[in-house]
Amino acid sequence: MINPRDTPPRFGIPVDIETGVPLTDMQMARLHKLNDAAELLYSVLHEIEGTQMPGLMEDHVFQTRRMREASLCLETALLWARRAVVQ
To answer: What is the maximum span of the chain, computed from C-alpha positions, in angstroms?
Structure first.
């Protein structure tokens, strides 16, 4: 139960998954920049293959094996880059 002296619970604030510490404005800016760059790279991969970009909340689907491998490598690089940003 919360009383008036307790700090209110914070919802909707991005936090580091491992520590639970809220992300700083600089970390959030870097994550947004990283996501923008990733969308640009995915756009180039789709343009090269001749497929459409997916809609919101849909996965990137590629038809050729090489593009699927490139997409997997990009996703792995994004995971490592995001982890480096929050640390």
So the answer is: 59
Cβ count near 77 (within 10 Å):
13
Q: Are 87 and 33 in contact (CB under 8 A)?
A: no
Q: Give the chain as a 3 state SS string.
A: CCCCCCCCCCCCCCECCCCCCECCHHHHHHHHHHHHHHHHHHHHHHHHHCCCCCCCCCCCCCCCHHHHHHHHHHHHHHHHHHHHHHC
Radius of gyration of the chain (CA): 18
pTM for this structure?
A: 0.77
Per-residue pLDDT reduced to its tens digit, 21-47: 888 999 999 999 999 999 999 999 999
- Domains of the chain: which residue ranges? 25-86
